[in-house]
Write a structure and sequence with these properties.
16% strand, alpha+beta, Nucleotidyltransferase, domain 5, RNaseH-like_sf, RNaseH_sf
Length: 138
């Protein structure tokens, strides 16, 4: 399970009895758009459902087929958008901010990032470089 400092869950991995895993990820923190807007932008419209209808079913098997189709369309849109996102940002983080920071460090260079902003960096040879950008101490 991946959480932030406030306890917000970003990802949960479930291991099934057969050893396979399923990963559930909060894509709302990464994609930052409504499902409807993403669908429209990809030419894959979400459609509409009348939520004013009274729903008395408890089991998913009792849900109307048009609701199930509407929800499946949401899932298809999110999967398509997330796949597109991963194509453009293969080393993405759990949030948009995390992805931006990873991309910036990759472009800027990890060593230069630490030198200018502080932190630590371990080179490929195993040497660790630590720097406090406030005191300029190594």
């Amino acid at each position: 399970m991946v959480k932030d400092d406030r306890g917000t869950i970003y990802q949960i991995k479930v291991t099934h009895a057969n050893g396979k895993t399923t990963t559930f990820r909060d894509t709302a923190r990464l994609l930052l758009s409504s499902v409807s807007k993403m669908g429209d932008e990809m030419g894959f419209p979400k459609g509409e459902y009348d939520y004013s209808k009274i729903r008395e079913y408890i089991d998913v098997d009792d849900a109307p087929s048009e609701l199930m189709e509407y929800m499946e369309r949401d899932i298809d849109i999110v999967i398509k958008a997330y796949s597109e996102y991963k194509t453009h940002y293969p080393k993405h983080g759990y949030t948009t901010a995390g992805t931006a920071l990873k991309s910036f460090k990759e472009y800027y260079g990890q060593y230069e990032y630490v030198k200018d902003f502080g932190g630590s960096y371990t080179s490929k040879s195993g040497k660790t470089f630590e720097y406090n950008h406030l005191t300029k101490e190594q």
